[in-house]
Amino acid sequence: MRADKQWSIVNFADPVRVVGAVVMGPVLIVHDSNKMARGEACTTFYRFTPGKGPTDEIVSFHCRPRQATLAETTTFTTVSTEPGCKRLIEYQIGGDAGAHGVPVK
User: Rounded CA gap, 47 and 18, in Å?
Assistant: First the structure.
């Protein structure tokens, strides 16, 4: 049985463009399958402060899901689109067999 929410805490050492935001540093990524089923923004990136937890929301969007091979760890697919900053095009949370495409805007 699949959980309604998957999440992962990651650290972006270099800046990465996610939809319209530039993300860098520790981040909590949450994917909500119930919101996805309703066509709502199902992925949210939050700033994360170790010892304190998530703080403000950075960006939220409706992903493009696809079936994938089970990922042992959280993975990211990026492309170089501008000097010094890559763009996130897909992510997969560790322990999940679903990958999530990221819209351009």
Answer: 13
